[in-house]
Design goal:
By secondary structure, this protein is α/β, with parallel strands linked by helices. The protein is 30% helix and 20% strand. Helix 1 packs across helix 6.
């Protein structure tokens, strides 16, 4: 069954994003929480809502590689080709970050976690806002992850500025994470 993307809902989510709010949206495996990666207040609010330590770093999702380029250090073509071969898809890559990537995204690392999402709703949102989106699972750090809108509302109440309707993808576990330089799997599927 094809996914129907409601532009009105996308516009509402984009508006909340631009106003610095935390939004929830479906991803390949769970509902995600996101915000503007360039807005430190928004990122710190998201971390506070989740009770997540800032030093862990955050994932950025995008609709296309061009949206991620400002965050990535120059890599050789072989590494970039290896990453692009998995996208759009449920593989997140740890990539050397440009020096100007803020600590509120990198955490205590010199890498940035990035993915071109295969989820049509999340990708449509990234395309509409024309920038990457912070992406972390919709749960209190270490707690049960939300897999639908009702669970997001139950966990977070009114702390979320907008919940984008949609169904999660078919993955049972969070997306795989790999190191771009070594191709080592950091978090298996």
């Amino acid at each position: 069954m094809p996914v129907v993307i409601n532009r009105w809902h996308l516009k509402q989510a984009a508006c909340a994003f631009k106003q610095g709010g935390t939004i929830a949206y479906p991803t390949e495996s769970v509902y995600g929480l996101g915000c503007d990666p360039e807005n430190p207040e928004a990122v710190h609010e998201l971390l506070a809502i989740k009770n997540r330590p800032a030093d862990m770093g955050l994932i950025l999702i995008a609709a296309e590689l061009q949206q991620l380029q400002p965050y990535l250090s120059t890599m050789n073509r072989q590494i970039l080709d290896r990453m692009v071969a998995t996208w759009p898809g449920p593989v997140t890559w740890l990539v050397p970050a440009r020096p100007e990537v803020p600590e509120w995204i990198r955490g205590a690392h010199d890498t940035v976690a990035v993915r071109i999402t295969a989820h049509p709703v999340a990708a449509a949102l990234c395309a509409m806002i024309d920038t990457p989106l912070v992406s972390t699972s919709a749960n209190i750090h270490g707690g049960v992850v939300a897999r639908n809108m009702m669970q997001v509302r139950r966990i977070f109440g009114d702390a979320i500025a907008y919940i984008l309707p949609g169904h999660i993808g078919g993955l049972k576990n969070p997306t795989e994470i790999r190191d771009a330089l070594t191709n080592k799997v950091i978090r298996p599927v």
